[in-house]
Amino acid sequence: MVSRSLFDKIWDFHRIRAMDDGRDLVFVDRHVLQETTSAVAFDGLAEMMRPVRFPGLTFATQDHIVSTELRRDVASNPGGRELIGLMRANAERHGIPMYGLGDPRQGIVHVIGPELGIVLPGTIVACGDSHTSTAGGLGALGIGVGTSEVEHVLATQTLVLPKPKTLRMRFDGKAGLGITAKDMVLHALGQFGIAIGVGHAIEYAGEAIRALPVEGRLTVCNMSIEFGGRLGLIAPDEAAFAYIKGRAFAPSGEMWARAVAHWQTLFTDEAAIFDRELSLDISKAAPQITWGTTQEDVIGVDQAIPDPDTIADMDRRQRIAAAVEYMGVTPGKPIAGLPVDVVFIGSCTNARLSDLEAAAAIARGRHVAPGVRALVVPGSSAVKREAEARGLDKVFTDAGFEWRSAGCSMCVSINEDIVPPGARCVATSNRNFENRQGPKARTHLASPAMAVAAAVSGAITDVRRLA
Amino acid sequence: MKPRPFTNFSGIAAPLPLKNINTDAIIPAPYLRSPSADLAAGLFARWRYDDQGQEVPDFVLNRAPFRAAEILLGGENFGCGSSREAAAWALARFGIRCVFAPSYADIFYENAFRNGILAAKLSLEALDHAVSLAGAERAMFAVDLERRVLACPDGRELGFEVPAFRAEALTRGDDDIATTLRFSEDIAAFVARDGRERSWIHDLGDRA
After folding, report:
1. A238 & A155 share domain
2. What average pLDDT does this structure show over A321-343?
3. Average pLDDT of the segment spanning A21-26
4. Which residues from A are below 8 Å from B79, CB to CB?
């Protein structure tokens, strides 16, 4: 038997046939739809009078453009009404289960996927959203696709893709105080850059990955796309199986035992060869925070903003100088102490229950600094209910945070949740691009605990000083 | 949907050779709020317009010859970030038929071809050469897909890279879904076999 990687095993299993052009036709086990990237796909189907091939393997929600006001309905965000209506109508027309506004299962696609047991180990999951890679945290291949590919999956339940190369990224060492899954993946982006994953499926491995709880693994895999590729995954283990057991669409009874037996074959063989191997030691890492306008512009919170004048490579010097200017930061000055205007805790990266618990642990007994707007946006309606059952909403509101309804909110800022021009925001989301959170918004990415530390201090702060 | 078949052409090339141009920059989120948004107007909107919505005179696509550009000269890791296909739609509606860059992020690369846009890989050195000529008056670049050559206004031919299957699909204007549907029996056979092996994938009962 040839030694294979975890990725190869899952890919090969799903290969229906090799196409003449060298690409593979692969089966998609689960297709999740959201309102902003599916409407045009349904138009395409209608134009060609094509049916949805497997509506029962397809799930829909509304997350991107929905209002996150605490008491909300379709009217809360008039700008979202068209796409919200189209998602509902298209799901109804094609018999696709729909967990939209008002449904207790509503939430961010990549949060409800694992939460409802839609995402299972060894599956291929497609979704018209780049952060579908999140599913890798449970040992699934989460493939983020464009709208044409959404249409393709709707019509055929397959994708035609060139098989990516493989990259193994090993995280060695033990995570120190204040180092979360978010810090680990940010640190790797800083070390390896945002294009290292182009054309590759990344397997995250090593001691520090194995030690992560399942929700932390989802956070790491979520940001796979930020390396330039579209896939990242972690071998599923007993912790993953335990996480899945009992969830709405998880196998049960006799099927459970057979499923687990299959899942136990999902690991990288000892002698498997990767196209590329990388490793980093995280034991010395400080909590990470981005200072610039790409995710590789990241430093420890105890470090200083880089000085473009000390960079020899002209290209890089220019890029760093432009980022320094956009962000309004001072080269050579410590990042800690930089005053913040907005703090956003949310997104498919960091809005699961464990994220909110980590945030609440720092917020408890403290208060948001004067002049700072701080939002907590749960990743799903279920996360919101569970957090409320544990009293976390009270911890946040007592501390001066806004407690909101589930959605993508200030990560993609396509609804009304926008950072004002020039304002500085510490966000637990995944992209610090220029204008991402609103025109001229300045975004610093960090973990939930770091975000709370900034909110209560009114400035970027090393959370280890508050813990 | 079936893209228009790609044909060779000569056109103006707009130089925007920045690294890591992300899809948020190509088409900002507000233009995703409606399927009927004016994506041609939204292309690079944050760079093209100031706070009052007036054109930024310095920005390349606001300058004389480049308003009519059909070629975009981009930088490494072009199209990184969000999966939004509206990035490809916006380029196409503006009139861009071809992007040249040293490398592309995976999802944008796929989206471009699906919309009949040639996303060709050009070495950094070749790209620099093209950029240096793009600003000259009436500088026309000729794209020859079969020969994989970008002919510059100075007569130099720059070789570019595109996989054979993508070039052929572009030229034919393939409907990818129709191609896959030819294998419907293979898909059905896979599902029948897999339904026995992994019943938990296919048999969700009435739980939805």
Report:
1. yes
2. 98
3. 94
4. none
The whole-chain average pLDDT of chain A stands at 97
- In terms of domains, do A271 and A161 share one? yes
Q: Do A245 and A297 fall within a single domain?
A: no
Question: Which chain A residues touch B198 with a CB distance below 8 Å?
Answer: 259, 262
Question: Which amino acid, A459?
Answer: A
In a shared domain, residues A8 and A146: yes
A214 and A346 part of one domain: no
DSSP string of A390-426?
TTHHHHHHHTT-EE--SS-GGGT--SS--PPTT-EEE
Distance from the Cα of B11 to chain A's closest Cα (Å) equals: 27
Mutate to test the interface with B, among A12, A14, A16 (most CBs of B within 10 A): A16
Model pLDDT for residues B65-95, shown as the tens digit of each residue: 999 999 999 999 999 999 999 999 999 999 9
For residue B169, the distance in angstroms to the closest alpha carbon of chain A comes to 10
A79 in the same domain as A195: yes
Q: Which residues of B touch A229 (CB under 8 A)?
A: 106
Report the chain B residue with the minimal C-alpha distance to residue A148: B114
pLDDT of residue A231 exceeding 80 = yes
* Residues from chain A contacting residue B31 (CB–CB below 8 Å): none
Residues B110-148: pLDDT tens digits? 999 999 999 999 999 999 999 999 988 789 999 999 999
Query: Contact at 8 Å (CB) between A39 and A64?
Result: no
Is residue A253 located within the same domain as residue A312? Answer: no
Q: Check CB contact under 8 Å for B1 and A435.
A: no
Among A285, A315, A345, identify where a domain stops: A285
Q: Which of A285, A316, A343 is the last residue in one of the domains?
A: A285
Range of the domain at A29: 1-285
Residue of A nearest to B182 (CA): A156
Instruction: Supply A462's token pair.
Output: 């090393």
Q: Indicate if A235 and A372 belong to the same structural domain.
A: no
Which tokens go with A149?
């590919």
Q: What is the DSSP string of A38-91?
A: HHHHHHHHHHHTPPPS-GGGEEEE--SSS---SS--GGG-GGGHHHHHHHHHHH
**Would you tell me which residues 122-181 of chain B have a C-beta closer than 8 angstroms to some C-beta of chain A?**
163-165, 168-169, 176-177, 179-181
